Amino acid sequence: MNVQFAHKLSTAARFLGLAQARCFHCLRPFSPDAENFSASTTSPPAGFFDPAASLCPSCRDLLAPYRGPRCPLCGLPSPMPNGLPAPVPVGGYDSSREAYQGSLCGRCLTDPPPWTRAAFYGLYRQSLRHTLLRLKFDGHLYLAPLLGAFLLEAAHCLPGPDALLAVPQYPDHLRHRGYNQAHELAKALHAQTGLALVPGLLSRTRPGPAQVGLSARSRPENVRHSFAASPGVKGLRLWLVDDVMTTGSTLRAAGLALLKAGASSVDVLVVARTPKEDMDFTGNSAP
Ligand SMILES: [Zn+2]
Ligand SMILES: [Zn+2]
């Protein structure tokens, strides 16, 4: 059975109520509701992944994106005033530096990051955190397309790049784990967008101690000078992909290396952002 015929058959079965989908996240069967049901009879493009049609209603709630206020430069969520619903600027968030200078966080005001813009999908808490940990430590690589679709949704506020690249792992760590979760996310994004994914543009030159157990303050020293970018980045507008941004130290070091090697711009794209209140203890949220 070819792919197009299988898609038409499953579309017809769902339309007639004869088939249930299985939630991509919790694996429970569910009936896609009308609003997420696509009556299209054409096959989806290669690499297409639709989270709305692939998640059961409760997982859609649990994995909902963060839509609250944030620092436009590093994405750090801003406190909600008096618990009121987060104000959303007209036209959505524009993460250009010029637009929201007034809402920059304290660190970006005094020590701005090297990247131009940063986008993330959700907070590094609860279900999203658990899902990212499953990808990173349990080898659940099947989750990459779902998380890649989240990256794509988050990336809507970023101008298109010339190429994608993932924050690399040190070779010994890569050999130990067998895969780099950030690269798996970049691959999923590449599959869904066709954006160029060029391996080898950035490498890790020294492992540095693990970030786990380091206080937020000691992280920058730990990752400084630990990346090397290839001359191939010269003139490129890049999206630098990672799973989580906690203090941003790793992404700052990686972004700096890319810009020093001549990249035209670096935008940071991560699935999840750690809120400030989750960082202020040793061994913060990135295990
Ligand atoms: Zn589910
Ligand atoms: Zn900031």
Report on the architecture of this protein.
- By secondary structure, this protein is an alpha/beta fold.
- It has 2 domains: 3-62, no CATH class; 97-278, Rossmann fold (3-Layer(aba) Sandwich).
- Helix content is 31%, strand content 14%.
- The chain has helices spanning 3-15, 51-54, 57-62, 106-110, 126-137, 144-154, 171-177, 181-193, 219-223, 249-260, and strands at 21-22, 29-30, 117-123, 163-166, 202-204, 227-229, 237-245, 265-273.
- It is globular and about 55 Å long.
- The termini are far apart.
- Bound molecules: zinc ion (ZN) (2 copies).
- One zinc ion binds at residues 23, 25-26, 28, 55-56, 58-59.
Distance between the termini: 44 Å
Summed up, the domain count is 2
- Sheet with the most strands: spatial strand order: 3-8-7-4
CATH third-tier fold name of the largest domain: Rossmann fold
Domain Phosphoribosyltransferase: 216-276
InterPro entries: ComF/GntX_DNA_util-trans, PRTase-like, PRTase_dom
Family: Belongs to the ComF/GntX family.
Protein name: ComF family protein
